[in-house]
Amino acid sequence: MTVMDSNPVPTLDPALPQHVCTTEPRPHPRPDGQDRYTISEVAAYTGLTAHTLRWYERIGLMPHIDRSHTGQRRFTNRDLDWLDFVGKLRLTGMPVADMIRYAELVREGDSTFEERQALLTSTRRDVLARIAELQGTLAVLDYKIAFYGGAHDAPERS
Q: Of 50, 85, 107, 134, whose CB has the highest number of CB atoms within 10 Å?
């Protein structure tokens, strides 16, 4: 079971707009039979630098990473799933402090479901507001593109 699978699929707030993006995430394919990755393999797979991976671990954003007998980090598929989720949180614009808080809540266990849901619901509202803002920006760009593309009958507004 992955970190993302350990949380039940919540019922979305009916007050929030529903979109096709509300489907459950698809798991990422992994090499068959492999469940141990070095930091350089994880860096290549995720696009994150080794420095970033070490920093995530140091600040508590990553769960405990197993070590080999020589002290090298050994990441698992579960760790890769977690990093994928953290990447999605980064794309939302969620502050690092909130991501760390979410990671702490996950480590605390099932009793924190409500607090985790509240944090994610708040982030979802922020994302929807950004999407609406970007849609308005896109409409302005479309208007300008149409204007410059030969639709000169529309007056330019700026």
A: 85
11-35 burial code (b ≥16 CB/10 A, e <16): eeeeeeeeeeeeeeeeeeeeeeeee
CB contact at 8 A, 51 and 43: no
Buried b vs exposed e over 131-147: b needs ≥16 C-beta within 10 Å? eeeeeeeeeeeeeeeee
Q: How far apart are CA 158 and CA 140, in angstroms?
A: 10
Rounded CA-CA distance 89/75 in Å is 20
Question: What is the distance between the alpha carbons of residues 104 and 115, in angstroms, rounded to a whole number?
Answer: 11
Contacts of 13 (CB under 8 A, 6+ apart): 121
Residue 157 has pLDDT above 80, yes or no: no
- Name the residue with tokens 């039940």: 8
**What gap in Å lies between CA 101 and CA 119, rounded to an integer?**
9
Please say if the pLDDT value at position 32 is more than 70: no
CA torsion through residues 74, 76, 82, 86, sign: positive
Tokens of 23: 């489907």
Show the DSSP H helices in 12-112 as ranges: 39-46, 50-59, 77-92, 96-108
**Stated pTM of the model:** 0.72
Q: Which of 127, 128, 78, 126 is nearest to 106 (CA)?
A: 78
